[in-house]
Design goal:
- The complex is a heterodimer of chains A (about 270) and B (about 300).
- Chain A has eleven helices and no strands.
- Chain A is an all-alpha fold.
- Chain A has one domain.
- In chain A, about 45% of the residues are buried.
- In chain B, α2 crosses α3.
- Chain B has helices at about 45-50, 90-100, 105-115, 130-145, 160-175, 190-195, 210-215, 230-240, 260-270, 285-300; strands spanning about 5-15, 15-25, 30-35, 60-65, 75-80, 150-155, 180-185, 195-200, 205-210, 220-225, 245, 250-255, 275-280.
- Chain B has about 300 residues and is of the alpha/beta class.
- Chain B has two domains: about 5-215, 3-Layer(aba) Sandwich (Rossmann fold); about 220-280, 2-Layer Sandwich (Alpha-Beta Plaits).
- Classes of the chains: A mainly alpha (about 270), B alpha/beta (about 300).
- Chains A and B meet through α1 and α5 of A and α2 of B.
């Protein structure tokens, strides 16, 4: 398993697409969480973020702000990373090369997932770091006090963020394994995350009770509820306290486990063509 | 001594299509075994089953006496249906990644790069490699584990004539060094030059197995004599009608080449003009086509 983990880590860290996704995630997080809201506050203009106030951008709100993108755009980007990590092996036909090296398929799979989880954690930490830098800069420019969240809050926030982001990455991986491709899983995953989830919660759930009930068990609303419970601003798409934070954490973890098991079952049992 | 490869009744069906049909294959330790057959005969599917990539519909596979599994592949090198690597990594990085998977030291990487003459281009990205270089990297990867059994599927695909000759030399050298090699090919000359034994597969079935000499059968004699019909009648009377065929204005006679002088004396003594008398070794290509045709008929 560790042999596979080392190999997968090399593959991920040398892959330009993985770096591109990481950079895009960090830049988008900084821009939408701090850049645009601060520009709106500084310019005094009305807009989607006009209800944000300066205190919401300061360092003590670091945890909630850093997690706010996870239900949608950050989640979508790590879903793509998951698809690329597993689906690339189909695209290049490299499963046959890897599976004939002497490790079991299960060992290869677990090593790949561990490497993917580590990559997701690295991106999440980069988002937190860039958020810390942005919020401190805003505090210094606006001569506001620099108060950081407690270590405990930071740890819980990072743990929850890692859980959610890894769940989305595993959804990408399981879609890639199920469909043995890259393009289709990315397309279907993004349609689900960016369109279907929002349509369900924004348009259908308010008029159909059973949809409102069902969506309480879906991964997106639970991810949104978990980050909302940890202080993410609820004006961000996908962030809403649909269910309690504790339930949300359990549901997200259950999806993570389910995705891992389904992907493993498919990968270990199917022929490698 | 356990056999490196042994299959019994190995079968793979895809719906109504039977890709591999009741394959009984035995590869002995230290030999270079040629798996010969036309495209689509089921060679690659059979090799995939040997490596555990494809699950058989029926039958068993044993590598060194055990079913194929992770541990059994620790000393098995393979190149199946063309090389497959990560395009954004260099050749050397690709091999280092595989060395991690295979749990072998990275010192083997330099050794195998040198073996396939790819050291100079090892730091170039794989995406920029020519087909021949990709093929050589595939062979290098197969050799990474210092294998006891090497399974090569069409290893000379994409290689230029020099590369093909180098590949044949490498396979012979590995065989001479004690490595068991199972090489599939549709190129008769290639198999003839490197293999100790050959298995011919058609429509998923093994239709012949033996040394190249065995498959050729007895070389016989080729006789050109005038008049042809009288010569044919005389030779039939001498060796038996079933041993004589009139082909392309001459006679193919299924007797030992050592009897050439006797046959010549008999024909000349009968007043016939013998224009040519030589050992009529069967062309392997003809043998192959005969076998395929026979196999097809049998299957039909």
């Amino acid at each position: 398993m560790w042999a596979s983990f080392r190999a997968e880590l090399v593959k991920l860290t040398r892959r330009p697409a993985a770096w591109l996704l990481a950079v895009v995630t960090v830049v988008l997080a900084a821009t939408f969480t701090y850049g645009f809201p601060y520009a709106g506050i500084a310019g005094g203009t009305d807009g989607p973020y006009s209800d944000r106030t300066l205190p919401m951008l300061l360092p003590d709100r670091l945890v909630g702000n850093s997690l706010s993108g996870l239900p949608v755009f950050f989640g979508a980007l790590v879903l793509i990373l998951g698809v690329l990590t597993a689906g690339g092996e189909y695209g290049w036909g490299t499963w046959k090369t890897v599976f004939t090296q002497g490790l079991s398929r299960r060992e290869v799979y677990v090593g790949k997932l561990l490497a993917l989880a580590v990559a997701v954690l690295a991106i999440l930490l980069a988002v937190f770091a860039s958020g810390a830098a942005c919020s401190m800069l805003i505090a210094l420019v606006e001569t506001q006090p620099v108060r950081w969240p407690s270590v405990g809050d930071l740890a819980v926030g990072i743990a929850a963020g890692w859980l959610i982001a890894t769940m989305w990455a595993m959804l990408g991986a399981v879609l890639a394994i199920a469909l043995r491709a890259v393009a289709l899983p990315v397309g279907l995953g993004l349609v689900w995350m960016l369109a279907v989830q929002n349509l369900l919660s924004g348009l259908v759930a308010p008029v159909l009770d059973w949809v409102a009930t069902v969506q309480q068990g879906l991964p997106g609303p639970n991810a949104g509820s978990l980050v909302a419970a940890l202080g993410a601003p609820t004006d961000v798409p996908g962030v809403a306290a649909t269910v309690g934070g504790g339930q949300a954490a359990v549901v997200v973890a259950a999806y993570l486990v389910a995705f891992v098991l389904i992907g493993g079952a498919l990968l270990t049992r199917r022929d490698v063509g | 001594m356990t056999l490196p490869v042994e299959t019994e009744g190995l079968t793979k069906r895809y719906g109504a299509l039977t890709a591999v049909d009741d394959l009984h294959l035995t590869v002995r330790a230290g030999e270079v075994y040629g798996f010969l057959g036309p495209n689509g005969a089921g060679k690659t599917t059979a090799l995939r089953m040997l490596l555990g990539l494809v699950r058989p519909s029926a039958g068993t596979v044993r590598l060194f006496g055990r079913p194929p599994g992770a541990n059994q592949l620790a000393r098995v090198g393979a190149l199946i249906e063309g090389p497959a690597f990560y395009p954004y990594l260099s050749g050397r990085e690709n091999l280092r990644v595989l060395a991690h998977y295979a749990r072998v030291g990275t010192d083997r990487v330099e050794l195998v790069l040198d073996l396939v003459d790819l050291t100079d281009r090892a730091d170039d990205r794989y995406a920029g490699y020519s087909l021949g270089m990709k093929q050589r990297l595939g062979v290098a990867a197969a050799l990474l584990k210092d294998p006891r059994l090497l399974i090569l599927d069409e290893p000379t695909n994409g290689l230029d004539p020099v590369g093909m000759a180098d590949m044949r030399t490498l396979i012979r050298r590995l065989g001479a060094g004690g490595c068991t090699v199972l090489v599939s090919s549709h190129l008769l000359g290639e198999v003839e030059q490197v293999c100790d034994r050959v298995g011919v597969v058609s429509r998923g079935r093994l239709i012949a197995e033996g040394s190249v000499a065995d498959l050729r059968g007895s070389p016989g004699l080729r006789v050109l004599a005038d008049p042809l019909d009288e010569a044919a009648a005389r030779v039939r009377a001498l060796v038996g009608a079933e041993r004589v065929r009139v082909v392309d204005g001459g006679l193919d006679v299924a007797v030992e080449p050592e009897r050439a002088a006797w046959l010549n004396a008999e024909l000349v003594g009968a007043g016939l003009a013998v224009r040519e008398l030589r050992s009529g070794e069967r062309d392997l290509e003809q043998v192959f086509f005969d076998l395929i045709e026979k196999g097809t008929t049998d299957v039909g």
